[in-house]
Amino acid sequence: MSQPVHERADATRNRRAILHAAEVLLAEHGFEYVSLDKVAAEAGVGKGTVFRRFGNRTGLLRALLEERALLLSEAIATGPPPLGPESPAEVRLPAFLDALAELAAGNIVLLAAHERACAEDKYTDPTYLRWHAHITDLLTRSHPDLDVDFAAHALLGMFDADLVRHIVDNGGPERLTTSVRSLTTALLRSAPAPKP
Amino acid sequence: MSQPVHERADATRNRRAILHAAEVLLAEHGFEYVSLDKVAAEAGVGKGTVFRRFGNRTGLLRALLEERALLLSEAIATGPPPLGPESPAEVRLPAFLDALAELAAGNIVLLAAHERACAEDKYTDPTYLRWHAHITDLLTRSHPDLDVDFAAHALLGMFDADLVRHIVDNGGPERLTTSVRSLTTALLRSAPAPKP
DNA sequence: GAACAATCGGACTGACAGTCCGCATATTAC
DNA sequence: GTAATATGCGGACTGTCAGTCCGATTGTTC
After folding, report:
1. Structural domain boundaries of chain A?
2. Out of B150, B158, B182, whose CB is closest to A146?
3. Using beta carbons and an 8 Å cutoff, which residues of A are at the interface with B?
4. Under a CB-based contact definition with an 8 Å cutoff, are residues B155 and B97 in contact?
5. What's the predicted TM-score (pTM) here?
């Protein structure tokens, strides 16, 4: 719709160019090489433009991760079982962690860059918060006896970029999936189930 | 030859001064304020001296953490039960994690600084490696069916500086201890016992 | 097509990690 | 005590980076 709040065409074009440039640099050179000067140069825009769009380095990497996590977000919000809201919590949680493992294994470099950039305030990152809220929600239903806030953070700790890299480099993506699954089933199996 | 390898008296004095200055700055201003220029100034030495002693920022913070973790290292290596080698693995592991929780809760700022500084190569940090090796060793005895390498990293993930800060700020050190303990007992209780 | 606001670009700033080398001093030999 | 020497010292210097700022430019509206 043509609301008074329109993003100008060049602004849109530049935002896309910047995101694309950041992805290219990340993929080609690793996260340590990706300074915002270089992103701006690669995107063919000025440095100020990058900062106006994304605020700072953190904002840029958050936007990138959010983009990559979009499908998963939709799947848990409105998708079909086992990720979607129709399944019971006991099914959704392992399915969600499986999906996270797959996402993490496929985006190690981005994950590492994001982690470094958001180190200061991990707990305000929208993607992280969404994941945490989702786990918290599921755990509250299935394991109300736990400190679900802490447990959710601890579970997300399994997707620490360095750990993911270490595991995937020594055993491939399957090892990550398998290990995550066996650790979580062990954990969840043992906690007392809620009484009806 | 009578010990050709002597550390000069001024070198020793400066090393202590630097470590002390770093602790003071960390305690008084938080980790973001602690640049190596400031540490050098606070210690009353030149910047070059800091780098000659510790190599780089990472080295300085590793040395600090190692110092704070010294008592725990001794306790697990040669101390009395339940931390020491006389106890069975099923007892030592929870005891060790309890001790880590206490250590972490009491050194949040150092932990955060160390984590930022070592982000690049967490898995080469001597203190982290020692802790990981200890957990791996204990798990191998008590739960050989697990991916013990992964599980040890995941357990150490509970002591992520941001998580520790979050939990301690909202519930005090007791909440950290309690949550760590309940999560680990849940996990360890459930895993199948080793087959004879 | 003119007026206007949104956007652009890149020079500039300040801070930091890490290097380098001439100078100072602790230690040793005598 | 003094001289020789090696060890350590200090801080100026470099290169890089995140983030700011403002005159120039360009898209949009009427």
Report:
1. 9-55, 66-190
2. B182
3. 32, 115-116, 119-120, 122-123, 146-147, 150-151, 153-154, 157-158, 160, 162-163, 166-167, 175, 178-179, 182-183, 186-187, 189-191
4. yes
5. 0.92
